[in-house]
Specification:
alpha+beta, Phosphorylase Kinase, domain 1, 4 domains, seven-stranded mixed sheet, six-stranded mixed sheet, 26 strands, about 30% helix, disulfide bond, ATP-binding, nucleotide-binding
Length: about 700
């Protein structure tokens, strides 16, 4: 049965055209759940007249259009890329030069890639930073090492996801002087990506000019096993970087895999098994690889110079060397000493609070914790910031206190929304006015610079008698928590599609913070109370009081001993080791998404389950309709597409992995939720 059709000819733009193309007896084959073709993917980047690719659970077939019609070439899994990666001008994606085709059993999976330790990438910190991988996992697989001998093969665990018909694991890279696509692909990343994939990722294949210090996305080559491979006992695929003295037999021996399965996975045969250096070969594995497979090879011959006359250089910043050293140490040792100290501090804090404040009943669901509150610093308003108010006034309005008094009827109880937030009307527009104490300069400086529809908009500020008043756009439908934890219902209900749209909005806002602010910022307090809904039920991420910049380099952790946030949403590496990265927000987002599907607060979920994964295991394992019914928010009355629920639960499972390296970047989550929303809207329209 045909599962997926991926069409790479840009004169086929609709599913109906594809259905007509693959007609039986003159009757077009439908595309959908009850048809032979389950899904259609159309790649608009392909050349006209070429690259018609049919992918199913048994493998990939390719069809080239000619005057006589379509000729089908059968194949298995994906074709080996051969030497195409060294020819940047070659754009024929009927090979796997853009990536391995998404014909696996799952669209997301655990995969592995390899990388050879060469200067300046010979340390755990440097390699994990370059490849956006979890250093603690790399360390475990590679004998708990933090440094590697030159040319040592290092195995890297990655989360592999399907984008635009190709599997990939994304990292980012800052362009250095003399870099070209070929230098980046074959020198820096050693062939684990291709120049064609880099050009395609950037979105302008004709633009070969790269600007120094420009940040680009690098798609690393990975793949998920097909159904046929899973039936053969294959559970993982590893993208192995071919070395100069490699052949298929030696690679099979090194990793103790069946040579026939290895050849089959790469569309090679015993008579056609030539492989080339600086290319990737898929190695099918039954179990995760271990250090016993990582061998040291002799140094390879120098790479041929790129087509330009300049010489590629790789520099490695020393400015964050101390952070890298600390991070590598925690990756290897688990931060044991730090955990003991931090644990003692947390224990003392909780014990002190309990003595000071008698138990007044049940603990609030979204209780927050904090340690080492340097209050003497927080109450001091930055003189430099006060002096900069004239600059701020150019981008946001500075209100007088009298204006805010009139807007809120002198901060009357009838204007009080919650806590210290008041509703006011200024020039006919509703505003949320938040009274704050302490130094809010960092929050204001960030909010005045950001501009994204999914981040709450700061329209003005006021300072009066030691208090700050921040004036925000007013989200008329209030906090998300009011809608999904509403036991009395009171007419407050969110449909399946609304929930997915809200989740996508939140992820998009976080993606802006993580990827489009300089430096990157972490929100650190994503929870249902800090997500506001406007009149159209579009989400706005709010409450930037805990936001901080990530001083460490891309995909690295920085350290803190100031643990703040909402219980239940805090990522393990942050709560236990004080490690800060954008993956904190990814974890919290996963918890948020779980609450949105179940309609239950995380504190309640933890009361019934030792681990959050227990909440959705039944759904993930397809245990039946009853398991799904018990999992989902009962207020939805079973009005949701079960297949999409399973898909979104997979996203949750990835986001709340204990190891941050196993969590996807929020950018990947945005892409996955975009797919989920599109399918949800199609499902919803079919009900009408």
């Amino acid at each position: 049965m045909q599962d997926t059709v991926m069409l790479g000819a840009d004169f086929y733009e609709t599913e109906s055209e594809v259905a007509s193309l693959f007609a039986e007896g003159g009757v077009p084959i439908g595309i959908g759940e009850n048809t032979k073709i389950k899904e259609c993917i159309i790649d608009k980047n392909a050349r006209i007249g070429k690259n018609v690719i049919i992918a199913n659970s048994e493998g990939v077939q390719e069809a080239d259009r000619s005057t006589e019609g379509f000729y089908i070439r059968s194949g298995v899994t994906v074709p080996y890329v051969r030497e195409d990666t060294t020819e940047c001008d070659k754009k024929d994606n009927s090979t796997s030069s853009l990536g391995y085709f998404c014909n696996g059993l799952n669209r997301i999976c655990q995969a592995f890639i390899t990388f050879r330790a060469v200067p300046p990438y010979t340390t755990l910190a440097a390699i994990s930073n370059l490849l956006a991988a979890d250093p603690s996992q790399i360390s475990v697989i590679n004998s708990n090492k933090t440094t590697f001998d030159t040319n040592k093969l290092v195995i890297i665990p990655v989360t592999c996801s399907c984008y635009g018909g190709y599997y990939q694991s994304n990292t980012s890279y800052v362009i250095k002087p003399d870099d070209t696509y070929l230098v980046i692909a074959n020198n820096t990343f050693q062939g684990i990506t291709t120049c064609q994939a880099l050009e395609n990722q950037k979105g302008n294949p004709n633009q070969f000019e790269l600007e120094t210090d420009e940040k680009i996305t690098v798609p690393l080559r990975c793949a998920c096993p097909t159904k046929s491979q899973v039936d053969d006992g294959v559970n993982y695929l590893m993208s192995y970087l071919v070395d100069y003295d490699d052949n298929d037999s030696t690679i099979s021996e090194d990793f103790d895999v069946d040579n026939g399965l290895l050849l089959k996975a790469n569309q090679l045969t015993e008579n056609d098994n030539t492989i080339y250096p600086d290319t990737t070969l898929l190695v099918p594995l039954q179990t995760p690889p271990t250090n016993s497979s990582t061998i040291i090879r002799p140094p390879p011959p120098p790479l041929p110079p790129p087509r330009t006359s300049t010489t590629a250089t790789n520099s490695f910043s020393n400015s964050s060397s101390n952070e890298k050293w600390i991070y590598a140490l925690f990756g290897a040792l688990g931060g044991g000493c730090f955990v003991l100290v931090l644990g003692a501090l947390l224990y003392c804090l909780v014990f002190w609070r309990r003595k000071k404040k008698p138990d007044s009943g049940s603990v609030p669901a979204a209780s927050s914790i904090t340690t080492l509150d340097h209050q003497e610093n927080s109450v001091k308003i930055s003189q430099e910031f006060l002096e900069s108010l004239s600059d701020i006034a150019q981008s946001i309005k500075v209100y007088s206190f009298e204006e805010l008094q009139l807007a809120t009827n002198y901060f009357s109880l009838s204007s009080l929304v919650e806590g210290s937030v008041y509703r006011g009307e200024i020039n006919g527009n509703l505003k949320a006015i938040k009274k704050m104490e302490g130094d809010v300069s960092k929050e204001i400086n960030l909010l005045q610079k950001i501009n994204h529809s999914s981040l709450i908009h700061l329209s003005g500020v006021c300072f009066n008698e030691g208090h700050w008043y921040l004036v925000f756009e007013y989200a008329i439908n209030g906090a998300l928590s009011d809608w999904i934890f509403n036991e009395n219902n009171n007419g407050k209900f969110l449909s399946w599609s609304q929930r997915i749209q809200i989740a996508l909005d939140v992820a998009s806002g976080l993606n802006y913070l993580h990827c489009f602010t300089t430096p990157s910022h972490v929100h650190k307090d994503i929870n249902c109370s800090n997500i506001l809904l406007d009149s159209d039920f579009r989400a706005k991420v709010a409450n930037f009081g805990l936001v901080r910049s990530t001083k460490a380099q891309e995909n690295e952790f920085s350290l803190t001993n100031h643990i703040v946030g909402t219980i239940g949403y805090l990522a393990p590496e942050y709560l236990e080791n004080g490690l800060v990265s954008t993956k904190l927000d990814v974890y919290a987002f996963g918890v948020l998404l779980l609450e949105m599907l179940t309609g239950k607060e995380v504190s309640f979920l933890y009361k019934e389950n030792r681990d959050l994964s227990y909440v959705y295991n039944g759904v993930l394992n397809n245990d039946g309709k009853e398991s799904l019914k018990q999992f989902m928010d009962p207020s939805m009355q079973e009005k949701y597409p079960s297949e999409l629920v399973h898909f979104v639960v997979q996203i949750i499972d990835l986001c709340i992995k204990k190891n941050p390296g196993n969590r996807p970047q929020i950018e990947e989550v945005v892409k996955l939720l975009s797919e989920a929303l599109s399918s949800s809207l199609t499902w919803e329209s079919s009900l009408k």
